[in-house]
Amino acid sequence: MANTMGRSFLQAAATSEEVAPPLRVVQIEGLAVLKIIKHCNEFLPSLVTGQLLGLDVGSVLEVTNCFPFPIREEDEEIEADGANYQLEMMRCLREVNVDNNTVGWYQSTLMGSFQTVELIETFMNYQENIRRCVCIVYDPSRSAQGVLALKALKLTDSFMDLYRNNNFTGEKLREKNLSWVDIFEEIPIKVSNSALASAFMTELEPELPVKQCDYDRLKLSTAPYMERNLEFLIDCMEDLSAEQNKFQYYYRNLSRQQAQQQTWLQKRRVENMARKAAGEEPLPEEDPANPIFKPILEPSRVDSYLITNQISNYCNQINGVATQSFNRLYLMKALHED
Question: In terms of pTM, does the model score above 0.85?
Answer without folding.
Answer: no
